[in-house]
Amino acid sequence: MPPRIHPLPRDQRHRLAPLLALYAAEMRGVLAGAAIATPEDQAALLAAHPAAEVLLAEDAAGAPIGFAILFDLPEIVFARRCGNLDDLFVHPGHRGRGVARALIDAALAEGRARGWSHLRWIVPEGDAAAIALYERIASRTDWRSYVIRLDPGASL
């Protein structure tokens, strides 16, 4: 059965804490040396952030099994808006079942409804599973990603 995907209101973002804990544990391996926040602090940030939008994937019983964090941004070149997929995570026990693809499809549907010119995202080079999916469904860009670290403990 396909997952149910829907926007997660700010006052329910605490429901992400178990998934955020799993996500943080995985990212510790990918982003070696990064000082990662607690799931409770992560969920509180998502609840308070005025621009963060969360899509939640639930199983048939209504349990959270994945999420995508989106931002609606100005796209100056096209004088339109675009979407930025900041984070996408699927519970390890639910991978390989199309949940990530369903989250991306929901983000694309939202973007079409809003008139976005495109949906974009970045992925750490060490996240081989995510890259394998993205290589199948999206086009790799010619853009480079740069960062200036203001907090050395928050490396990406």
TrEMBL record:
<feature type="domain" description="N-acetyltransferase">
    <location>
        <begin position="3"/>
        <end position="151"/>
    </location>
</feature>
<keyword id="KW-0808">Transferase</keyword>
<keyword id="KW-0012">Acyltransferase</keyword>
<dbReference type="Pfam" id="PF00583">
    <property type="entry name" value="Acetyltransf_1"/>
</dbReference>
<dbReference type="InterPro" id="IPR000182">
    <property type="entry name" value="GNAT_dom"/>
</dbReference>
<protein>
    <submittedName>
        <fullName>GNAT family N-acetyltransferase</fullName>
    </submittedName>
</protein>
<dbReference type="InterPro" id="IPR016181">
    <property type="entry name" value="Acyl_CoA_acyltransferase"/>
</dbReference>
<dbReference type="InterPro" id="IPR050832">
    <property type="entry name" value="Bact_Acetyltransf"/>
</dbReference>
